[in-house]
């Protein structure tokens, strides 16, 4: 089998596995085959993927900065373990066999990642998760015995003993960031988008997947927003009157056709509307960060998940119970939410004093703070009753 055939065969096996377990394949399908063509055309006599191949490919292909990073990331998943086998056992892409995926080799691989490459626990555990999934595919195809797969499953995750600071934006930080979009060409869209991200506390893909019909007004001038989260779990999040006002202004400019099935946030390309990408959000946040730091030089680096984390912390500081915050964020396990409770008592008291007055929230009629002491009402608003 030639170098090209081996690359394509390995790639198709990876795609079959990702499809079988429900992982996305579109990015891989669009990015990896052209790279394989490049390798086969220019390095036909090679047996492994090298850094030179990757560097030449990135130079010749018109990737954006973010796209280059994404391509390198997915390529690592494709080659990391194979490179380890080559470095430690002399195995190449052509000679590696399914039996080389065994507990002994994988444990050695994890140690190699930690000791030789200096990877942290989260990265090592991510690699282990990927290998476990691929070995499950091999087991289902009878390429490795069930006993070998069970041994691989028994490999324990690496313990993360780092002391990582938990950071979030203050209410005043959020206000300062929102203010920065006012001079933008798409200021109405950008303010509404960032407001939704913050007040809903939703994951970025949940926000970008919203349709117009997913926002529904209540009888009190407020709004319920319907999300379809991880595992297709439906949840309802109550938002403030300010959000509904922004929504109406946004639709007047960006949804004049009033199609309830249309994506709420979109970009236009070749006269067609497409789902807005997270790259657009990163660009908006980068501009806001650059401008806001003129007034707040110590502002944290802005990214979409920081808005979700900040909202959760603001809810917790305002006295909202952890089970309700868990439902608000769409966490399947409340233990995930308990992380927010690790804040010190002194910080909690100080933050709660700052939030005690009604004009200290981002939006003055913020439902979460309005009903912070009324757990029964919060449960009803979140669809728990």
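-> sequence recovered:
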């Amino acid at each position: 089998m030639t170098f090209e055939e081996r690359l394509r065969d390995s790639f198709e096996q990876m795609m079959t596995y990702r499809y079988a377990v429900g992982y996305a394949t579109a990015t891989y399908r669009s990015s990896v085959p052209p790279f394989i063509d490049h390798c086969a055309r220019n390095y036909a006599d090679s047996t492994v993927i090298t850094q030179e191949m990757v560097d030449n490919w990135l130079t010749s292909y018109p990737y954006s900065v973010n796209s280059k990073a994404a391509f390198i990331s997915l390529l690592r998943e494709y080659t990391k373990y194979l490179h380890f086998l080559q470095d430690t056992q002399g195995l190449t892409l052509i000679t590696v066999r399914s039996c080389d995926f065994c507990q002994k080799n994988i444990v050695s691989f994890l140690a190699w990642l930690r000791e030789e490459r200096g990877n942290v626990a989260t990265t090592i555990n991510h690699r282990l998760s990927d290998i476990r999934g691929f070995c499950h595919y091999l087991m289902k195809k009878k390429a490795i015995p069930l006993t070998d797969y069970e041994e691989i499953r028994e490999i324990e995750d690496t313990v993360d003993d780092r002391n990582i600071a938990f950071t979030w934006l203050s209410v005043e930080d959020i206000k300062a960031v929102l203010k920065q979009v006012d001079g933008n060409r798409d200021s109405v869209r950008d303010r509404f988008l960032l407001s939704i991200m913050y007040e809903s506390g939703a994951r970025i893909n949940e926000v970008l997947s919203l349709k117009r019909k997913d926002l529904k007004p209540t009888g009190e001038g407020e709004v319920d927003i319907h999300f379809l989260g991880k595992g297709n779990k439906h949840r309802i999040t109550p938002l403030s009157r300010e959000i509904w006002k922004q929504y109406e202004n946004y639709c007047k400019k960006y949804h004049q056709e009033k199609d309830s099935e249309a994506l709420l946030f979109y970009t236009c390309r070749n006269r067609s509307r497409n789902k807005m990408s997270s790259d657009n959000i990163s660009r908006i946040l980068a501009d806001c960060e650059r401008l806001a730091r003129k007034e707040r030089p110590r502002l944290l680096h802005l990214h979409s998940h920081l808005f979700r984390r900040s909202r959760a912390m603001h809810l917790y500081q305002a006295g909202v119970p952890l089970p309700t915050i868990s439902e608000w964020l769409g966490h399947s396990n409340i233990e995930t939410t308990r992380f927010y409770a690790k804040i010190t008592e002194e910080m909690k008291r100080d933050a709660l004093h700052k939030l005690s007055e009604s004009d200290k929230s981002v939006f003055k009629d913020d439902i979460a703070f309005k009903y912070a002491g009324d757990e029964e009402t919060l449960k009803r608003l979140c669809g728990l009753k």
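The first helix runs from residue 3 to 20.
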